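Appendix B, record 7
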Amino acid sequence: MLTARRLFVVVSVVAAGWIAFRALAPRSEITNRRPPSGLVICFGDSLTAGTGAGDDQSYPAHLARLLGRQVINAGVPGDTTASALARLERDVLAHSPGIVCITLGGNDLKNGVSRVEAFGNLQTIVQRLHAAGALVVLIGIDPPLLGRSWADAYRDLARRTGAILIPDVYQGIMGRPELMSDRIHPNGRGYRVLARRVQRAIAPYLP
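Structure tokens (predicted):
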């Protein structure tokens, strides 16, 4: 039987552990979980544009068929977070989207842009989309040979802003020749895998 002193110690340890868990746990609240419209825009670089596959085989095209609704492909090959930010108003916000799926950051990494600069731009993009009422889905990269700091940065940004995170665009695709058109870009079958993952992520939030 626990004495009062031992009971106090046990309760104190449990309480301290719970406080630490809450402090370190990722944010669970999703910002704009009830988007104002069902319009989906895919915004980003060549992985959004569909490089390596035909126009009707890009992941936004597959996603439109899976959802049975319009999906705008606002992908530009070679886009960085800076160039995407410069066209955000024209190509995304002007359409009043309900959900925006973002693939950005890979070209920043390739071009030697610092993580601080890249994720500063990406945070601005997410915040402007949230301010407009859109639900944001971040589709990250997890480069195994270039350090985990970028993968961690996607997770941190999603936690801080309340964006949905798909942590690695290449999960289940990279390393499978039947799903890749070259070393970087999926083929139509690979983009279909990505589209299904995006569909699962946004399905609970579609109006």
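Remarks on this record: Confidence is low (pLDDT under 50) at residues 4-27. DSSP finds nine helices and five strands in the chain.
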